[in-house]
Specification:
It is built from five helices and ten strands. It has 250 residues and is of the alpha+beta class. The protein folds into two domains: 2-104, Pseudouridine synthase I, catalytic domain, N-terminal subdomain (Alpha-Beta Plaits); 107-245, Alpha-Beta Plaits, CATH 3.30.70.
Length: 250
């Protein structure tokens, strides 16, 4: 047996999320169907760096699986791309040590969130950016970003439906916001995230940009550990899993 690592991208708008669900179209389900065909009916389980919700996209999701097939890494990429649906693409495939794990070996994940500030909605971007045509002080947003950097208990900024056990403490290495024409790109780099954490952080930063909240309120929000005090959870369509970093396997 050998282990194959793949870097994949997908358009999340046609999926009920990454994780396999009975009766629903998922990224994991589509790739595992292809691998089962390649292995002549033998089921093959894939493991990912993490799950993405319905409507969330990925440019750099990472998966791994075990196989007794002796195809080269280049052949794996070619074979998978010939069979997966058109809204999934295998960007890279490589053999990795048996000790590698796509989820447990992650040292950093980068997410981007795209906000469209055009006055009128663009129907061609409705699945790929959050339309937010309201007055916004971008400078306030950008200055507040650094308040979320570092190690904090992010209970206030995670969904009340979160099933995470143990500490809600997470470390964010970078939180920033860039202007690109009519779009704002929020960038998050961290060692781990809670359920809906990025989408709630974006909602909170947009509230700050509208003057509904102050950057100085953030330490108090961390301390109170109350989801009701933070901004709303923005929609999934603007969220992209951008890049995953590993220490042993680059």
């Amino acid at each position: 047996m050998s282990k194959i690592k793949c870097v994949i991208s997908y358009d999340g708008s046609g999926f009920a999320g990454y994780q396999i669900q009975p009766g629903k179209r998922t990224v994991q389900g589509e790739i595992e169907k292809v691998l089962t065909k390649i292995h002549k009916g033998k089921p093959v389980r894939i493991y990912a760096s993490g799950r993405t919700d319905s409507g969330v996209h990925a440019l750099g999701q990472v998966i791994h699986f075990e196989t007794d097939n002796i195809m080269s890494a280049a052949s794996w990429k070619q074979a998978l791309n010939a069979m997966v649906p058109h809204d999934i693409f295998i960007k890279d495939a490589m053999r990795v040590p048996d000790t590698f794990h796509a989820r447990f070996d992650v040292v950093e994940k980068e997410y981007h969130y795209v906000v469209s500030r055009s006055k009128e909605p663009d129907v061609f971007k409705r699945h790929y950016a959050y339309h937010f045509p309201y007055t916004l002080d971008v400078g306030r947003v950008q200055r507040a970003c650094s308040c979320f950097e570092g190690t904090h208990d992010f209970t206030t900024f995670s969904s009340a439906k979160s099933t995470a056990k143990g500490s809600k403490e997470r470390t964010l290495f970078e939180v920033s916001c860039e202007e690109h024409g009519n779009e704002l790109i929020f960038i998050f780099r961290g060692s781990g995230y809670l359920y809906n954490m990025v989408r709630i952080l974006v909602g909170t930063l947009l509230d700050i940009g509208q003057g509904n909240m102050e950057a100085g309120d953030i330490p108090d929000l961390f301390a109170k550990k109350d989801r009701r005090l933070a901004g709303k959870t923005v929609p999934p369509e603007g969220l992209y899993l951008w890049h995953v970093v590993y220490d042993r396997v680059k």
